[in-house]
Design brief:
Elements (H helix, E strand, L loop, with lengths): L2 H21 L26 H15 L8 H7 L3 H14 L3
Pfam families: PP-binding
Organism: Paenibacillus oenotherae
InterPro entries: ACP-like_sf, PP-bd_ACP
């Protein structure tokens, strides 16, 4: 990953933490700084559920133009593991073309 890609991923991570997770899911007991890049989001870790997973996917489309319906369920589950994996998916979708 180039330096410019690292910078882009860092910006994406910030948006994922604040806008996609905290603001969209109305998480009140945690700050963006407390969400680490590798924190598990669903089940253990942050403790999000399947309804919130759906909200994350809708938010990815609204905030980043990233559509996930063409991604097989098991692969999508891996992409939604943590902030790092979500950010990498967003970058991948943008470098290959939106959607």
């Amino acid at each position: 990953m180039s330096i410019s890609e690292v910078s882009v991923v860092d910006r994406i991570k910030g948006i994922v933490k604040q806008s996609l997770l905290i603001d969209r899911l109305e998480l009140e007991d945690i700050t963006a700084e407390e969400i680490t890049d590798d924190m598990i989001l669903f089940g253990e870790g942050l403790g999000l559920d399947s309804v919130e997973a759906f909200e994350v996917m809708v938010g990815m489309e609204e905030l980043f133009g990233v559509m996930v319906e063409d991604i097989p369920a098991e692969e999508l589950k891996r992409h939604l593991t943590n902030v790092q994996s979500i950010s990498e998916l967003i970058l991948l979708k943008h470098t290959k073309g939106i959607g």
